[in-house]
Amino acid sequence: MISSARQRAGGWTRRRRSRSVCGRPRWTNWLPLKVIVCVIVIACALSGATWYYATPKYTKIGYQPIQPVPFPHDIHVTQLGMDCRYCHSFVEVAAQSNVPNTATCMNCHTQVAKDNPKLQPVQESWKSGQPVEWVWLYRTVDYVYYNHSAHVNRGISCFSCHGDVDDMSVVHIAQPHSMAWCLDCHRHPENYLRPDDQVFNLDWEPEDVKPAEFVAKYGQPSDTREDFSRKKHLTQSEIGQTLKERWKITPPTNCQGCHR
Question: How many domains in the chain?
Answer without folding.
Answer: 2
